[in-house]
């Protein structure tokens, strides 16, 4: 049995499952903890969504690994459509007036979405500098403490969680997807840098802590 740390919104859970379980089986355990049905779950490990049939060990999930659980966006959109449909039925007698109100709400929601994506973009820009600093250190042969890669990954995961919570359409939706891709790319870069940093031929006497330059960053999540 291995312990899996599960992040679902602001909640943190711990699950114990057989090491050879599939992600589909893990979803069933997550359902018991969160109440989110398996077919509505999107399980991410290292910022990548995993298929139900894939086994934990084949994805390098080990004891104390952490996964992120998001609600499937199709499920969210279905809920919104149902709510909109319900509102339309109730307001048929005052359609014209309600349409104006709805247009105002949509405009306000779009503005909020743009602002939310911009806020995440600003944080990801800062994190890109952090990743660049790690890259310079590793490329120069400097041994970087593993904790720096762990913290950086946690910070990226937090921004991904923020992006998933943004309801957006049109251009705002496109911008949100672009930021998701940026976060995924930075996470892949971290994985590669961490692997190179673990090279046994590296000079361990040069070990440094890059975060001393980034004191304002705090993952807000337990490692």
How would you explain this protein's 3D organization?
It is a single chain. With 223 residues, this protein is of the alpha/beta class. It is built from five helices and seven strands; from the N terminus they run E-E-H-E-E-E-H-H-E-H-H-E. The protein has helices at residues 23-34, 73-90, 95-139, 146-164, 170-197, and strands spanning 2-8, 11-17, 41-45, 48-49, 65-71, 142-144, 203-208. Strands 2-1-5-3-4 form a five-stranded mixed β-sheet, with helices on both faces. Strand 1 (2-8) and strand 2 form a beta hairpin. Helix 3 (95-139) runs antiparallel to helix 4 and helix 4 runs antiparallel to helix 5 (170-197). The chain is flat and about 65 Å long.
Provide the gyration radius in Å.
21 Å
Task: Give the SSE order as H and E letters.
Answer: EEHEEEHHEHHE
Look at the structure and give the mean pLDDT.
81
Sheet-strand content, in percent, reads 15-25%
Low-pLDDT windows of residues = 211-223
Count of helical stretches: 5
Class from helix and strand fractions: alpha/beta
Shape: flat
Largest sheet at a glance?
A: 5 strands, mixed
Fraction of residues in helix: 40-55%
| Measured distance between first and last alpha carbons | 20 Å
Record the strand order, biggest sheet.
2-1-5-3-4
Number of strands: 7
SSE layout:
Elements: E1 2-8, E2 11-17, H1 23-34, E3 41-45, E4 48-49, E5 65-71, H2 73-90, H3 95-139, E6 142-144, H4 146-164, H5 170-197, E7 203-208
Parallel strand pairs: 1-5, 6-7
Antiparallel strand pairs: 1-2, 3-4, 3-5
Helix pairs in contact: 3-4, 3-5, 4-5
